[in-house]
Structures are given as C-alpha cells and as structure tokens.
Specification:
Blueprint lengths: L2 E12 L5 E9 L5 E7 L5 H17 L7 E4 L2 H14 L2 E4 L4 H13 L10 E2 L15 E2 L8 E8 H9 L5 E3 L16 E8 L4 H11 L1 E7 L4 E7 L3 E8 L2 H16 L4 E6 L9 E5 L4
Parallel strand pairs: 1-4, 4-5, 7-13, 9-15, 10-14
Antiparallel strand pairs: 1-2, 1-6, 2-3, 8-10, 11-12, 12-13, 14-15
Helix pairs in contact: 1-2
Protein name: Tab2/Atab2 family RNA-binding protein
Pfam families: Tab2-like_C (PF20429), Tab2-like_N (PF06485)
C-alpha cells in the first residue's frame, strides 16, 4: 500500500515581488519520495493544487510505481482544498494527525527558511513560525445522551494489552500498527494506562460516536473541577467528564505518570458493563503534535 502525506499552507516566505507564499510539501510514508514547490497566496486554490498533484502522480506512475491509495492531511485549513482535488483524482483523502514523515520534514524545512534570504524563488520574512501549530478551540462537553453508567482509570502490562483484545470479538477496534507496544520498543512489563467506560445501554452508541470522532488521545486535566479531555479528529477537543473526587484525582495523576513511562501510549475501552464478557470498542491512543 502506498500512502502520501501532504501539506499545503502559508509559510513565512515571500517572492521577489513581496507576495506571501504558500508551500506544497508532499512525501510518501517511507521516505522514498519528496516534492516541494511554492505559489503566491493569490494562486493558492484547489485547481492549482490539482495541477501539481496530477503532475507528480504522472511522474510517480511513469517511474513504475502504483497510484497512492490514500493522501493524508493533518492541517484543517488544507483539508477542504485537498478533498476537492482528491475527488477529481479518484484518490481517498484521510484527515489524520498521524503524519510522522511529513511533520518531520516540516520541522526540518522550517529551520532552513532563514537561509532563503537571497533566494529569488522564496525569501524568508523573519516572522515567527511554528510549523506544526494548529489553533486549539476550547473543549466542548460530550453530549449527555452518549455518556454511560460509570468510568474508571485502569492499566494493563504491555504484554497483555494486545492479547486482551485479540481474543475477543469487538465491534469497533482501532489498534494502529505504529502504536503497538513492540513497535514503540516498550518492555513487556511496562504498564499501559487507560480509561474504561461502562456504557450500559449507551455503550454501542458511545463507541460509534467515538469512532466517528477519530480519537487521538485522552488526558487527565487538573482544575476546578478536574476533567478528562479527548483530543480527536484534526483539532477537536471534548470534555468526556468532570469530577471533584480527590481519590479519582490521585488516580488521574498516576494515569498521566504511567503515560510518561509508556511513551504516551494509552487506551480507551468502552463496554456495556464490568463483567469483562463483552467489549463495544477499544482504541490505542497516543498524543500527536
């Protein structure tokens, strides 16, 4: 399977005429392909993007490769333009925060911009720039109709984590290969923290909503009151619950400490009840910049 990662957005650059520049950066997920070009902000459009993609795809195929199965995008501002172009290309567009190769290149290129002061194609403006920064809106409360009966913090040794879900028929299961404990180099004894929700009659409705929301990470946030904040989609944030219980807060602190030991890896489990007989949904999660 071939996957391309793509970003198309304004950079702290300008052309010789002083026009702000947008940069198109495309790469594949394994580092075999990389393409960069610029356009003036006035030219930045779905049609310009389509032309560039058609050219690169044609060259890619002529080199003996197969058409990419998916184009990944992490920036919300890029998504609509790419979806428009993707429809005409017949290639699936996937909105995801997990574009590791692309983000690595964006950080690398941001360090090179200051060297472009004498370039005729693109010149650095001197503006401050955070290549991966996205606007974060205040978190929105989870709709009450979705919340289940109760929830709790939990943990499983890394060695038991996958066995726990692989032996069961789980309607909704999200276990990305890149997040497997073995892929992250975690010792089998490392505890993987998580949150378990007993959803009762709402279990499947909640699991379906979570899957559609594309969970990324789930964090304990101390405050008045304390809460659980779900990062989802490209930039969505949801308040799953709030609480003022000191014992639960202590468990939340331990949960975050365990996440530091597990390289951020954690899980979310939704089940009808605490019998351990039936699971509705399971997600492996990890914070993503």
């Amino acid at each position: 399977m071939t996957v391309w990662e793509l970003d198309f957005y304004r950079r702290p650059l300008q052309n010789a005429a002083g026009d702000p520049l947008w940069e198109l950066l495309i790469c594949d997920s394994v580092g075999a392909f990389q393409f960069v070009t610029y356009c003036a902000q006035a030219q930045a459009s779905a049609s310009w993007l389509l032309t560039q993609l058609q050219s690169q795809l044609q060259a890619w195929i002529e080199a003996g490769h197969t058409l990419p199965d998916r184009l990944l995008v992490f920036r919300p501002q890029t998504l609509h333009l790419l979806e428009t172009a993707g429809q005409q290309l017949g290639i699936a567009i996937e909105a995801t925060r997990r574009t590791p190769r692309l983000k690595h290149l964006l950080v690398e290129r941001s360090r090179q911009y200051a060297t472009l002061t004498d370039s005729l194609e693109a010149r650095y403006t001197g503006q401050g720039y955070q290549p991966l920064a996205l606007d974060k809106l205040p978190p929105v409360p989870l709709p009450e109709k979705l919340w289940g009966d109760r929830w709790r913090f939990a943990s499983l040794p890394a060695v038991d984590l996958i066995d726990t879900v692989s032996d069961r028929m789980i309607p909704i299961l999200s276990v990305p290969e890149a997040l497997l404990p073995l892929k992250l180099g975690l010792a089998s004894t490392v505890p993987i923290p998580g949150v378990v929700i007993d959803g009762g009659r709402q279990a499947m409705r909640l699991a379906n909503w979570l899957q559609q929301s594309q969970p990324v990470s789930l964090g304990y946030i101390p405050g008045a009151p304390d809460g659980l904040i779900l990062e989802a989609g490209l930039a969505d944030r949801w308040i799953l619950t709030t609480f003022e219980d000191t014992e639960v807060a202590t468990a939340g602190q331990a949960y975050e400490q365990h996440k530091q030991l597990s390289q951020g890896l954690h899980f979310l489990l939704v089940q009808p009840d605490d019998s351990g007989m039936t699971y509705s949904g399971f997600w492996l999660l990890k914070p993503e910049d």
